[in-house]
Design brief:
This protein has 396 residues and is mainly alpha-helical. It has two domains: 54 residues; 282 residues, no CATH class. Helices cover 60% and strands 4% of the residues. The chain is flat.
């Protein structure tokens, strides 16, 4: 009685096994053909090809390693940066304000001495110190995180070559860190533009700070530049971005010596928040577009880079807004928005706790495939709503 059923399942599993074997054979055939072809070549050709093959194995092996190891990743990095500052604790001053009293110069004081002689006492001059910009400090640290503590993925040769010619962003593999770095870089470009155009000059009419201008120019460099481009030899992206670190830190050094300008006015803060709000809104729209384009769950190859780009942006803006609170401390206190700012920072920090191992872009009503993009979009819009509320208070 059971023989027909047993025979049926035996036949089914046999065909499944043959199908799997055929698929493996198709996948391995190019490598088997290449192995036979390689074995029939001469010694010199085989040696050259062998070295090339070893080079590719090393290249991709290193690429796989650096895309999986995230050195220095720490959502609480703004606290660490603030702890390195000798001026950040001056909560009653905004960035660029003097925080150390300057003596009137070297004073000569006559004092009577024994026998009618007079003595001379010299008062030493205390150099004036101004408060540094935490926005510039966070920007420099984020660039350092991207190109020094980690390899800049987008300009690596293995990244440009892709997966057998297929761009990594169109696969579910090894593009998360690159997308995360690009999200941070988007914030850095926006921030340096604001530093040059408004924050680093008096009322937007004084001379542009050359250090900030050089930093902005450096960050505008192609994100995927290698040593050789379509127009010939060029500079790789990481080496150019490192110049931006130097320029931002030089600006802060000048600011601490009271030789540079940081215009911490309420209207500049309002404009900066406007730019951040617009940037976050644009990214949330990108997430919504991907949600509408696919509901393939764990099998959507574009979901992971969309998610990690947004996460990188949120990661960077959390630090920038933490720094902004210090640079504009007097404005925030005078406008009585401290509580709103605290709420915004808490919500953004809580959103950074979302670090799924596999990104799923399922239907929002699905109980099997979660929708990580929808959750990230919600976190972005919640942060944006807090920024808009603060902006409205400033605009009254």
């Amino acid at each position: 009685m059971l023989d027909p059923i047993v025979n049926f399942f035996t036949w089914v599993f046999q065909w499944i096994g043959r199908g799997i074997g055929l698929l493996i054979g198709i996948l391995l055939w190019p490598f088997m053909w290449a192995g036979r072809w390689y074995g029939n070549r001469g010694l010199i050709l085989r040696a050259v090809l062998g070295l090339i093959l070893v080079g590719f194995v090393f290249l991709y092996g290193y690429f796989f390693y650096v895309t999986q190891v995230w050195n220095g990743f720490d959502p609480d990095y703004p606290t660490r940066i603030a702890a390195t500052s000798t001026t950040a604790k001056a909560t009653n001053a905004v960035a660029g304000d003097p925080i150390a009293a300057d003596s009137t110069g070297t004073a000569q004081t006559e004092q009577p001495a024994t026998g009618g002689a007079s003595g001379t006492t010299t008062a030493q001059t205390t150099p004036q110190t101004c408060k540094r910009s935490e926005i510039a400090a966070v920007s420099a640290d984020l660039i350092d995180f991207n190109v020094n503590r980690n390899a800049w993925i987008s300009s690596m040769l293995a990244s440009k070559m892709g997966f057998f010619g297929v761009p990594w962003r169109n696969t579910p593999f090894f593009d998360n860190k690159a997308a995360f770095q690009l999200g941070i870089n988007q914030v850095l470009r926006r921030t340096t533009t604001e530093l040059v155009d408004a924050l680093g000059r008096a009322r937007g009419t004084s001379r542009i700070d050359q250090n900030l201008q050089d930093a902005r120019t450096a960050l505008a460099w192609d994100e995927d530049a290698w040593y050789v481009g379509l127009r010939g030899p060029t500079r790789p992206t990481p080496s150019v971005y490192r110049e931006a670190i130097t320029k931002l830190r030089t600006f802060n050094g000048s600011l601490e010596k009271c030789e540079a300008t940081f215009d911490a006015r309420a209207d500049n803060l309002l404009q900066f928040l406007d730019r951040i709000s617009g940037d976050i809104g644009s990214t949330s729209d990108i997430l919504r577009s991907q949600l509408e384009a696919s509901d393939a769950g764990w099998f959507d190859p574009r979901a992971d880079d969309r998610f990690w780009f947004a996460y990188g942006q949120l990661y960077a803006y959390y630090g920038m807004l933490h720094a902004t609170r210090t640079d504009f401390s007097a404005v925030i206190r005078e406008r009585n928005i401290t509580t709103l700012w605290d709420t915004m920072q808490t919500q953004m920090r809580d959103a950074l706790n979302m670090q799924p191992w596999i990104i799923s872009n399922g239907n929002e009503s699905s109980f099997i495939f979660p929708s990580h993009l929808a959750t990230m979009g919600f976190n972005l819009l919640r942060a944006r709503s807090q920024i808009v509320e603060i902006r409205q208070v400033l605009d009254r």
